Amino acid sequence: MELKGIHHVSAITANALDNYHFYTKVLGMRLVKKTVNQDDTSMYHLFYADEIGRPGTDLTFFEINRAGTTYRGNNSISLTSLRVQDDEALQYWVDRFDSHSVKHNGIEEQFGRKVIYFEDKERQRLALISDETNEGVESGIPWKQSVVPQKYGITGLGPVRITVPNLLVTEHILVDVLKFRQMGSYLVDNHHEVFVFSTGKGGTGAEIHVEIDIDAEKERPGKGSVHHLALRVTDRTELEQWREIISAERLPNSGIVDRYYFQSLYFRERNGILIELATDGPGFATDESIEHLGESLALPPFLENQREDIERNLVPLYTKKD
């Protein structure tokens, strides 16, 4: 039994409408699900992904209207990367970022791959990573109706970087418990070492990068921070087996939670990183057709009887014709 790669990353925004504009109109991702946080239905939960929301392509956001500034630091998920098909696509993105006044560092190299580090308006830490030389987990397929030409479009999630003060406790969870493989390391900022761990078929869609920073204070999250990362599990049967493994490690966990579009298990590793294990299915077409994903407020059946109250408390997010 082996985890298949990155499933999704969930972050925080203070403004759903601005967030929607950036990720669909600038980055060209598709809004595949407009729903609410199932644990707090007063806030949106927006899912951006490839053409149909394949597992491994979802970048999601919880809207917390009063979210303050993120004070960056340790014990955090510190970088989310997004895949593109080749180096040529990165040059397209340099030009696009410049035309949209997106802060970026130009094309650099990371672990033998070309990348562009950039930020959204809330200083969410992001990177585009080229799959020019990549082998491993298959990418998604960009949406044909995107504002970005399909050959340059974002194809899914790449490596997720976490920053911690102590490698050993995180390495134990990744290698001994979750069965990742250590693949090597590289430097960032000329002195912080980042260790690369891989699972499943490997490659950009199946890596966690662990940056070691022994000096930084613990991050204080807010808008522009990442809440958790999720890893892919085939189905409910495997998820139940992972629950036994996590419990045997004496890691406090949520037990299995039905998120309707997938089933999940949440736990924190001992450096405080919140990790979710999530099944590949049933997927986002469960309650909407593929042609109309994300156009209406979708609620799982157990929230449907609260629809009127939920919609009354949400600021309208117009997405169909804007």
Strands, helices and their partners?
Blueprint: E1 6-13, H1 16-26, E2 30-37, E3 40-49, E4 58-63, E5 76-84, H2 87-99, E6 104-110, E7 113-119, E8 125-130, E9 156-164, H3 167-177, E10 181-188, E11 192-198, E12 207-212, E13 226-233, H4 236-248, E14 253-258, E15 262-268, E16 274-282, H5 307-312
Parallel strand pairs: 1-4, 5-8, 9-12, 13-16
Antiparallel strand pairs: 1-13, 2-3, 3-4, 5-9, 6-7, 7-8, 10-11, 11-12, 14-15, 15-16
Which blocks of ≥5 consecutive residues have pLDDT under 50?
A: none
- Gyration radius from CA atoms, angstroms: 19 Å
Task: Kindly name the structural category.
Answer: alpha+beta
Q: What's the assembly state of these chains?
A: single chain
Strand proportion, as a percent range, falls in 35-45%
Q: Widest sheet: strand order?
A: 2-3-4-1-13-16-15-14
> What is the mean pLDDT?
96
The CATH homologous superfamily is named 2,3-Dihydroxybiphenyl 1,2-Dioxygenase, domain 1
Shape category: globular
Instruction: Work out the helicity level.
Output: 10-25%
Quick tags:
alpha+beta; 38% strand; 16 strands; 2,3-Dihydroxybiphenyl 1,2-Dioxygenase, domain 1; 322 residues; 8-stranded mixed sheet; globular
Account of the protein in words:
Residues 5-131, 156-280 form the VOC domain. By secondary structure, this protein is an alpha+beta fold. The protein has an 8-stranded mixed beta sheet. It has 5 helices and 16 strands. The protein has one domain (6-312): Roll (2,3-Dihydroxybiphenyl 1,2-Dioxygenase, domain 1).
